[in-house]
User: What shape does this take?
Amino acid sequence: MNIYDKIKSDIAQDYYIANFPNEGQRFIAWYLRNIHNLDTYEAKDCITDGPGDKQIDAVYVDDQTETVYIIQGKYYSGDSVNATPLREILSSWTQIQDLKHLQEAANDHLQSKIADISDALAEGYEVSFELITTSTLTEDAMKDLELFQKTLSSSESLNANLVVVDEETLQVRY
Assistant: This one.
């Protein structure tokens, strides 16, 4: 069974159906529970997806590793995903650098997480943007990824990186 089919089967369970209105949110919750090892309540608390999410589907602050995970999920049955999700992450990276403005424009779930992000950044936490997808990136998206990673690593305003957790990486981490 490939990872997409495994996830599809898992997110059909009652917990996911009862707590998350769509497959995208269920996928992110599955990822938080199975990869970041969060319990059901922690996973639900991290989800910011929905109208006004400002391209941020979930925020998880890991105090053990001193990392803020900004997660963008793309749950696709297709073989590949283009560069659009990477551009969404670029947008969220830009917005994270102005938390006051982000606070004003964000949905309620994200607003509740902005204080956590601010506190973590004040403590010197690293920011890890995670693009999680059940597909692989196209060639053009891989080129965009490389450029974006260079931009992040050269930024002096925010200690951040970008990790693409694609179909193969999901399978290994799971």
Summary: The chain has a mean pLDDT of 92.
